[in-house]
Amino acid sequence: MSPETREATRAEAGGAVEAAATGAGDPVDSAPSPRAPAGGGSDRGATGGVIVEEADLAEQSRLLTEEGAGPLAQAEAVVAWLAARYLPGVVLACGFGVEDCLLVDLLSRVAPAVGVFYLDTQLLFPETYATRDRLVERYGIHPVAVRPRQTVEEQAEALGPALWGRDPDLCCRLRKVEPLTRILSGQRAWITGVRREQGPTRARTPLLEWDRRFGLAKGNPLAAWTARDVWRYVHDQDVPYNPLHDRGYPSLGCWPCTRAVRAGEDPRAGRWSGFAKTECGLHG
Fold first, then answer.
1. What is the model's pTM?
2. What confidence score (pLDDT) does residue 1 get?
3. Catalytic residue status for 280
4. pLDDT score of 43
5. Of residues 101, 171, 254, 280, which has the active-site annotation?
């Protein structure tokens, strides 16, 4: 694929994702209706179609796992399968952590037509926005910002200041889960950087699955990767990554709810420190 063709493909993918995020010119309130799954009938919500799709994904996940390929070959196979089955309705959810940066690089080689979006909570670290810009410059991607219905200031006026410090579950729902629901409602599949090694809540993550919460297929190409696998790839391929990782932040989120991790702590111990909370609701 020539550089010109690759750029045109990425631009088309970015336009498709932006259309799903914004709907008919409104960046907040509208999104297109879900598409039917490949081979799944005319209504993705029909019980029979979902059962078939879920079974197909489980079987393909099993086959890819049992092939015994190395981490990179396995991840490439997952991405290629998702692209072949679901394009143009498959997108990468990019949080600009190291796994997502890796996936941007991998997609640029294996499936450049896959669109990229990120949840712009308006509370991301400055380093995260800078990493976004570096990826745009390096890969020519067109990541779509999906934002909450309210600005931080509007949320504070409605619900009081610093909601994240009083009710982080509600804050995550408003600034992450609802925007994600909106963007995914126009897609058939999404790709994440979730790895089993990241914590007990992710320990059984399959390569492919039916996401019952959001009602579409979900691919986790890096599920079996170790942190060593990730960093070896990033350094070998000279992939731009978020400098916060070099400052003790293995898991990245919004700045009010994320701290550096101390020696011996779980990699996600820096998220919502002081609360009995380990996930924002996007993956469980």
1. 0.83
2. 54
3. yes
4. 45
5. 280
